[in-house]
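In this section we walk through a basic example: taking a raw amino acid sequence and producing a predicted 3D structure, encoded as discrete structure tokens. The instruction is simple. Fold the sequence below.
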Amino acid sequence: MSRSGQGVSGLVINIVHVSAFTIKLEVLWPWLLPSAMAVLLAALWVIRSRQAGGGSAVSRSEPPPGLSPAAAGALLSENVNARHIAATIFDLALRRHLTIREAKTPSSILTGRDFLFGQLTDHWNELNLNHYEVRVLSTLFGSGVRPSMSTLRTWKAFARVWPLAGKAIIDELIGLEYFRSDPRRLRRRSGLLAAALAAVTPLLPLLAMYWRGSPAWLWSAAGATACLAPLCLAFMLLMPKRTAAGNLACGQVKGFRRYLRHAERFQPPPEVFAKYLPYAIALGETWRWANYFRGRPMDGICWFQGGVDHGAGLDPEVLKRDIEHFIHLLKTALSAPLGHRDSQRHYLGVGPGAAKRPW
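The resulting token sequence is shown next.
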């Protein structure tokens, strides 16, 4: 009898151990997915980092060859924003394709200030211009109507400048093998996945509360899902998006930005101020670049006539104020809802300077 009692006791103990092991598996298996995903993302980050290498930011007195101001800014920020579109407009003005003049117009009653654009060239496809530069010029002047910043908010065609020009800028960097793919697409996908996981996470505990018996794996799955969202965000922020060539060019852009930021160390001649002003705008160094030339006559920026004539002496505060206000109005015009715009077709192929679309 004693032997059988011992056997039964041992059997009970074994059953208890098996049951505990089953419960542990039921609780732990939902964590296999975030664990595997973390290992996979870490391995992918190491591989991409080794392939991309690093670009040293050595100070240089000129921008990287072949990079426009907008492309240099987009390479550095891995995005295209209104500042880069504004730098493109200023660069086109510098190359005498258009003029920018501050003026009082009926549309500026609410904004207080406005900017008028003047056309200097046409037949842009015959000139040595990038696709996004042709897009900007043809949208501004393709209708034959002289545009102002305030009236651009009412043009449906101008609403397409940002996405189409932005895509052309990124495609140019991809063509130069500086990006593997569009970095904005990677951010969008990772952000959407993180948002979806964040939305599902609070639903799992609610389901567990109303589930008969409240299975333990549901609570564990809720915790595992909550960990996946920050993993997606970390992947979006930390994953290298530039190639080895892109990192090298990015290091050159950073070196040139250092030159613009600390101009007093390098003492650039006055004739390069206007030449590099679009780059300073794209890289966010307008005031620092202009501050070095404070008080000097600047006839080289006659294509931009802001609130003050800088021919007698450059005022960096006023210049920065004018340019930042220009960027603010441009961003407002680019992001105005389509429902508030008219149905006029300000496209290529309409009015003087019309040309076939190169994209």
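Looking at the output, two observations stand out. The chain has two domains: 60-180+243-359, 182-240. The two ends are 92 Å apart (CA to CA). In the next section we compare this with other chains.
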